[in-house]
Amino acid sequence: MIEAVVFDVGRVLFEWDLRHLFSRLVPEKAELDRILSEVVTEDWHFEHDRGRTLAEMTAERKALFPADAALIDAYAARFNETIPGPVPGSLEIVSELDEAGVPLFAITNFGAEFWDGFAPDQAVFEKFRDIVVSGREKLAKPDPAIFSLAERRFGLAPGAMLFIDDNAANIEAARQRGWQVHHFTGAANLRADLVRRGLLS
């Protein structure tokens, strides 16, 4: 029996794409592709999710790519522009679960500094009882340790929680710990699964 639902944030609740910002700054496609594949990459961004500071990361990157220093600074200063808005339908599902009395939690790979600049303006997070933020904990999915931490923080057994994430590796890590899981591909499929499980009608 599911006692709580645990959401990922990026690409489950909110869209996220580095290209959404950098396509405004780099109009030429080949150069944009170079920036996103070599300079401001998702793998590099993930270092902030794991707990490295922006100051350390950007200084190091600008030393490697001095000609791209302004774009690296834009990544740090304008990160919220990589989040164009909510994933269609997802916030409505959160509200319906909350209204139905289902306890809500989240585990997100999100840099601490970026989280502090984004989360306070998003009212949806007020519906969550606790949110584990990877950058604050210096642990990131799919490391099993972040799920262990969440189990202690949330005070529930793994099998009592339904974990929702768009990343297959994160889903498998949670499954290996005994969590119930939903691999997110869109709000319609999630809603259907929640209805099937008796969490929504």
UniProtKB/TrEMBL annotation:
CDD domains: HAD_sEH-N_like. Gene3D superfamilies: HAD superfamily/HAD-like (3.40.50.1000). It comes from the Bacteria. InterPro entries: HAD-like_sf (IPR036412), HAD-SF_hydro_IA (IPR006439), HAD_sf (IPR023214). SUPFAM superfamilies: HAD-like. Pfam families: Hydrolase. This is HAD family phosphatase. It comes from Qipengyuania spongiae.
